[in-house]
Design brief:
- It is a single chain.
- Helix content is 43%, strand content 21%.
- The protein is α/β, with parallel strands linked by helices and 184 residues long.
- It has a seven-stranded mixed β-sheet, sandwiched between helices.
- The protein is globular and about 45 Å long.
- InterPro entries: CobU/CobP (IPR003203), P-loop_NTPase (IPR027417).
- Its EC number is 2.7.1.156, 2.7.7.62.
């Protein structure tokens, strides 16, 4: 199994830049898995995507994978470093799945992560630090992403929190919580 690293934190904190730095440091062929898709009518969204594209080295392979993340990871070669940016967008892309389908999607993803021989870097947003969303879909998103991040963090070799322009290695300064069946 390759190295698995989770990079989490709030919006605009530097998560993606830190993940990109780690990908470059791996010395491996980098496969950038973008979970976002282009939306031509949304200029602000296009600008965000362009900012990410401009930072990436030209030799990186970029794949747009809005939903089929597990299959994409399963197809990677051990000699690569896969950077998935971001899990929050992936969760949003699958919000219409019912609870049973979502549970199956997460289970498949977590098993795949543990079987892949490539190095993997996952960027994930922290959404649960604010108010509880006033609408059901917002609460579903927040809860699904929070649970996914916790479950993934439990199996990753290293977990970073990026905030205020600093990357903190939680794996060395934190205490891992006991495994929990419900991840509340």
């Amino acid at each position: 199994m390759g190295k698995t690293i989770l990079i989490t934190g709030p919006a605009r904190s530097g998560k993606s830049e830190w993940a990109e730095t780690l990908a470059i440091q791996s010395g491996k062929t980098v496969i950038y898995v973008a979970t976002a898709t282009t939306i031509p009518d949304d200029a602000e969204w296009q600008e965000r995507i362009q900012q990410h594209q401009n930072r990436r080295p030209q030799d990186w392979v970029t794949l747009e994978v809005p939903t089929t993340l597990s299959a994409t990871l399963a197809d990677t070669k051990p000699s690569s470093c896969v950077l998935v940016d971001s899990l929050g967008t992936w969760v949003a892309n699958l919000l219409e799945e019912d609870e049973v389908s979502w549970a199956n999607t997460v289970a498949e993803f977590l098993v795949t992560v543990q079987l892949v021989a490539a190095d993997m870097l996952f960027v994930a947003e922290e959404t649960g630090w604010g108010v509880v969303p006033a609408y059901p879909l917002g609460r579903t998103f927040r809860d699904r992403l929070g649970s996914l991040v916790r479950q993934l963090g439990a199996i990753c070799e290293t977990v970073y929190l990026v905030t205020g322009g600093y990357a903190l290695n939680l794996s060395t300064i934190g205490t891992k919580l006991p495994d929990s069946a419900n991840y509340e």
